[in-house]
Amino acid sequence: MAEPTASAGQTAFKRRRRIRRTVHFGEPLPPGAHTFRAAWLCGPALAWVTVFLLVPLLFVIALSFAQRGDDGEVVWRFTWENYSRLAGNGALGFDAVQPLILGRSLGVGLATATLCLLAGLPVAFFIAGLPRRWKTVAVTLVVIPFWTNLLVRTYAWQILLAPEGWLAQTLATAGWLPPGTALYPGWPAVMLAMVCDYLPFMVLPLYASVEKVDWSLTEAAEDLGASPLRAFWHAVLPQIRPGMIAGGILVFLPATGQFVIPDLLGGAKVALLGNAVQQQFGASRDWPFGSAIAVAALVVMLFSLWLHTRVTKGRREVALP
Amino acid sequence: MTRRSPLSALAALAVFAFLYAPLAVIIVYSFNAARYGVAWQGFTVDWYLRLLDNDPAIAAAINTIELACTSTFFSVLLGSVLGYGMSRYEFPFKRLFHHVLHVPVFIPDIVMAVALLLFFAVLRKWLAGFELGMTTMVLAHITFQIPFVAIVVRARMADCDPQLEEAAADLGAGPWLTFRHVTFPLMVPGIVAGGLLAFTLSLDDFVVSFFTSGPGSTTLPILIYSSVKRGLTPDINALASLIVLVSALTVVTVAWLRGRTEVKN
């Protein structure tokens, strides 16, 4: 049976369009008065975000073109050097460290989004198939880790993957691992924690999409002789695409800029953009270069959001947490 | 009709176990008697009792709550008015502002953190006596909270027909009466949801706080981070377990309240 949600969504959409054109409080406000009232309502908060976010970001962009003095102070002389270092021009010829960090961050973001999608699909379908009462319980179970401090959930993996932990012990007993080896720091630990931490971001929008799936299409496909896999691919997957895209961007963006997870579980070899920024603003005291890395992270974010609006053709389907 | 296959149910349960493994292990180990390492050496509630004498932890807890309350108060004030304005009025550059509002939502924490660190460093040069501490943390938290509150309130108001407000005006209610009896009651669920979201974001924030805090304004996430960096200690597990418990209780309460209001309507 087709769920009525699709048509309900359409009326909500139409109503929203009507609100946009409505004249406020029945009185035909002249455009000037309209802007005046809007300025009073929206002005303070927008001014706040401008002063405390946009202006600081402009500072970061400006600083990324400055130089580092010998004692870590900032020298305001224009240079492209920070960006050329980011592109791999070291003091002794090509140095792959910085480009690698950028590529690694993008790779980790994409891998986390893909793994979360693979792990999230069965969960979303499972929850959608539950009776009504249990659905609420299952969704609540997904939301609890989502609301729990990320730092806490991340450091827990240090206990889980410790050499005396049962996972390492089991692997050692099976002979796959020399006894007494810690499973962190390293790539597997980082990816495990990434997927575990960001899974709820994928499951929630995915589940919202699966709930709306019109299953009669699958039946029609199967009646016409499609195998279950083909039916799923052609009749179900296109319907849950909005959820997949929304979940993908909600996982990819924070995972790419992650700082805590590689810091606690990755060690020096798994440094991502966030760790590089922290390193430059902290121990290395090279704020201009750190700013250049931050600008790179910002560009990655803006580009992915732009790509996202292109793919969804401006219909924002990102369910905010 | 939805499909159920035992295989996908099994996979889903495995994923749930994976999701809860970290939470479970923290709670289990908070009762472990071992002083060092993760080997199990018997059951104890000692670590919880010791938290009562742990002055830095108590101070950090007070700081965390103070910070969350102050910043949520201001961000709800600014954000809900912004959300209302954006849902009801058209103004120049509205689309641009709409995008600007999404920057703090999607920006990597660390980029926002260093931007604010830099900004406050510049302010410190100009303003005598301006130091990193609770004030800078409150300013920073309000900044990332405002958009979340505004987006939630705006979504709520978009679902409310402005004709209700027009009807009140037609029946002779002035702007204040209309606001008091029609607009505000319509906004309340959005304000509560947005405020709760803002409050939790502030409680959970580590990266922005870490970069904008000063001596004496340590919060729980900063305390946990520095303890973990120094080496795991069991009392941190007890503290983290309490955090897990509080988060779980909050989520369950909110879900229960929401379920009740849905039944009523």
Question: What's the arrangement of secondary structure elements?
Answer:
The complex is a heterodimer of chains A (321) and B (265).
Chain A: H1 5-21, H2 31-63, E1 67-68, E2 74-75, H3 81-86, E3 89-90, E4 93-94, H4 97-128, H5 132-147, H6 150-160, H7 166-173, H8 187-211, H9 216-223, H10 228-236, H11 241-256, H12 260-265, H13 273-281, H14 287-311
Antiparallel strand pairs in A: 1-2, 3-4
Chain B: H1 6-29, H2 46-51, H3 55-88, H4 94-106, H5 109-126, H6 134-158, H7 162-170, H8 175-204, H9 207-212, H10 220-230, H11 234-264
Helix pairs in contact in B: 1-11, 3-6, 3-8, 3-10, 4-6, 6-8, 7-8
Descriptive notes:
The complex is a heterodimer of chains A (321) and B (265). By secondary structure, chain A is mainly α. Chain A has helices at residues 5-21, 31-63, 81-86, 97-128, 132-147, 150-160, 166-173, 187-211, 216-223, 228-236, 241-256, 260-265, 273-281, 287-311, and strands at 67-68, 74-75, 89-90, 93-94. Chain A has a domain at 98-319: MetI-like (MetI-like fold, Orthogonal Bundle), CATH 1.10.3720. In chain A, the strands form 2 sheets. A two-stranded antiparallel sheet of chain A has the order 1-2. A two-stranded antiparallel sheet of chain A has the order 3-4. With 265 residues, chain B is an all-alpha fold. The longest helix of chain B is centred in the N-terminal third of the chain and has 34 residues, at 55-88. The mean pLDDT of chain B is 86. The interface between A and B is large, with 100 and 101 residues.
